[in-house]
Write a structure and sequence with these properties.
With about 200 residues, this protein is α/β, with parallel strands linked by helices. It is about 25% helix and about 25% strand. It has 4 helices and 8 strands; from the N terminus they run E-H-E-H-E-E-H-E-E-E-H-E. The chain has a 5-stranded parallel β-sheet with strand order 3-2-4-5-6. The protein has a 3-stranded antiparallel β-sheet with strand order 1-8-7.
């Protein structure tokens, strides 16, 4: 598995992925904390939606994709039926393409049945400025018309620049603007943890 990258061109400004652990890094979520947070989010989604009917989870690249899959697995374990999961790439909808034109595009993959008249839950690792989510909403508008759109994030670190808030949050993590929040997931980085430095 590849090592975490130092703010790669495709990384969202909402989170950084460090090449290595700094001595000043402080772990705020370990693997068990992340699992518990995702379990809580899964139950909240089921309660709010009154089950998994018409629920579609769309993971935002990069680390939102494995998080969406994990949440879907937890919901399936409770409901006994699979939950639709897809991937959403917002690269071409970002408002910083002019300043960072070398971003690598990922694929958008909607589940069979699409998103029309579905309850779509956008899943991301960190909510920061809100600009990635705004781009995701623009991308969704080109893909279909959901009956509702909700947002689930592993970490909300504050410092919003747009009027966007998460419906489901694993951990609220107040942070200074100069601090770095790093999310590592086993599927991509070989380990599960959230650190702040």
């Amino acid at each position: 598995m590849p090592a975490p990258e130092e703010t790669s061109p495709d990384a969202s400004p909402d989170v950084t992925h460090d090449a290595g652990r700094d001595r000043a890094d402080r772990t705020v979520l370990d693997a068990r904390d992340i699992s518990r947070a995702l379990t809580r989010i899964s139950h909240e989604l089921l309660e709010r939606n009154k089950g998994a009917t018409d629920l579609v989870l769309l993971g935002l690249h990069t680390r939102g994709v494995p998080l969406a899959r994990r949440i879907a697995e937890k919901i399936t374990a409770v409901e006994g039926a699979p939950v639709a999961v897809g991937e959403l790439d917002v690269t071409m909808y970002r408002d910083d393409l002019r300043s960072q034109p070398t971003r690598r595009a990922h694929k958008t993959a909607l589940p069979p049945g699409g998103i029309d008249k579905k309850v779509v839950v956008l899943v991301d690792d960190v909510l920061f400025s809100g600009r990635t989510i705004r781009a995701a909403l623009d991308a969704l508008a080109d893909l279909g018309r959901p009956s509702a759109v909700r947002l689930a994030v592993l970490v909300d670190r504050g410092h919003r620049e747009l009027p966007i808030r998460a419906d489901h949050v694993g951990k609220n993590l107040p942070s200074a603007l100069a601090e770095r929040v790093s999310v590592r997931l086993a599927e991509i980085d070989g380990t599960d943890e959230v650190t702040i430095s």
